Amino acid sequence: MLVPFLVGDTVYYCREGFFDENRVCDESRPGTYRRFNLRTGEERVLRTHNTWCSTGEFEGLNLKRRALYFIEGNTFAGTARMYEYSLDHDEVREIKIEAISDVLHISEDGGTLLVCAASCSWRTMSTPARWRGWT
Between these two residues, 16 and 91, which has the higher pLDDT value? Predict the structure, then answer.
């Protein structure tokens, strides 16, 4: 388990997939993003990181927006994509930011992200301008 987030009675965390003795990824058991309800003991996979054994960590949590943020893909190859997981709706949606490599800050209201893109230039993405329909 990598760095978890506790929200109410639920822990959200990433679990790495399985590697063989030569550290080769067993693609039939990839990394997963999970939630575990401490009250009921129910554990559920909220997303599978297909073909990757390592999921990375959640980039951040915004309690006002009730969302977790994470990046999947290869940041060095420019294939990384950013996602938002809605705690209330149990949905994962892609945030369209090209060649993202890191999330540096999430505003308190969840409306603005400070991200590092492929060239690592600093820029902000504002909810009304870039995430139309994401409420």
Answer: 91
